[in-house]
Amino acid sequence: FGIWDIVDILIVAYIVYKLIIFSRRTNAGQVVKGIIVLVVVAQISSLLGLNLLNFLLVNALQIGLLALVVLFQPELRKAFEKMGSKGFVQFYSGDRETSPSELESAILQTVEACKNLSWSRTGALIVFEREILLSNVAKTGTYIDSRVNAELLKNIFFPNSPLHDGALIVQNGRASAAGCMLPLSSNTNLSKELGMRHRAGVGMSENSDAVVVVVSEETGSVSVAIGGMLKRHLAPETLEKLLRNELMPKQEESKRENPFFSFFFKKKEDSGEN
Questions:
Q1: Which of 215, 265, 246 is nearest to 112 (CA)?
Q2: What are phi and psi of 120, to 5 degrees?
Q3: Which of 18, 54, 223, 241 could share a disulfide with 232, CB 3.0–4.6 Å?
Q4: Which residue, 224, 137, 132, is CA-closest to 180?
Q5: DSSP string, 31-72
Q6: Does residue 140 come out as left (phi exceeding 0), alpha (psi in the -120 to 50 range) or beta?
Q7: How far apart are CA 166 and CA 123, in angstroms?
Q8: Going by C-beta distance under 8 Å and a sequence separation of 6 or more, which residues neighbour residue 4?
Q9: Cβ atoms 137, 216 nearer than 8 A
């Protein structure tokens, strides 16, 4: 057992780690859990001598590997394209981290835009990416790659704009694509008052961990969809607080743990009560 064996183990461990991160940041997580269950059951059936069950599970796993390649072809293609364009070292070093200031600016600009869009009763659909990547959704729209700006959002969702019917995707604190198509929710318990824009927002939150902001064209009401749940009739202050808590949880928690910020928030709450 030499130094190169240690290097070999470390390289394999790091690759496995990156694969785990990849599965967590896509919809592959649940599929991986199902495969692990099948592997465990196959091993148990082999130990117990359940030959027919073991034969079926082993063959199912062999076919399943081919099915996985077909199922996650878009993600695998993107990974190989990324590796070819950036190189092996840059590929495994990870994606660009979102700047807290850039994300905070995106939140403030979104809140400002929603205030104006709500007043003018202009429909809007804004999706904030989190852990699960939305690159495939972004490909359905028009690539823009711009800073999130209130004026930009108002222009995108202006009724005569060619992109106003789709959704805006925000990735890493930047507006990446507009006019994107979102999956509709199949939840039959949603209110009949909700239109296609709200159903698309809820559907997107059901299929990913994204935070979706929806502005109603009929009432001007601002809503946020998270995890298949829709929070409606949000005031600008509530919208900003909700987006900060969902998109910047670490920064908000650190502020409250800091003695200075804790004192500041306490004073602010006390003044609000008075």
A1: 215
A2: -90, 0
A3: 223
A4: 137
A5: HHHHHHHHHHHHHHHHHHT-HHHHHHHHHHHHHHHHHHHHHT
A6: alpha
A7: 10
A8: none
A9: no
**Low-confidence stretches of the chain (pLDDT beneath 50):** 85-87, 90-91, 252, 256, 260-261, 263-274
Give the tokens for residue 26: 């896509």
Rounded alpha-carbon distances, angstroms, from residue 121 to 118, 124, 223 = 5, 9, 13
Q: Note the pTM of the prediction, 2 decimals.
A: 0.64
Strand residue runs (E) in 85-166: 124-128, 142-147
- What six digits make up the tokens of 143? 């690539």
Which tokens belong to 244? Answer: 């900060």
Which pairs with CB-CB distance under 8 Å and at least 24 residues apart come from 190-199? 190/230, 194/230, 197/123, 197/125, 198/223, 198/225, 198/230
Tokens of 51: 């030959």
DSSP element (H, E) containing 225? strand 222-226
Assigned token pair, 169? 């995707």
Tokens of 41: 């059951």
d(CA 240, CA 168): 18
For tokens 């809007």, the residue is 124
In single-letter form, the type of residue at position 106 comes to A
Query: Rounded to an integer, what distance in angstroms lies between the CA atom of residue 194 and that of residue 101?
Result: 34
Q: What is the pLDDT of residues 147-173, one digit of tens each?
A: 999 999 999 999 888 888 899 999 988
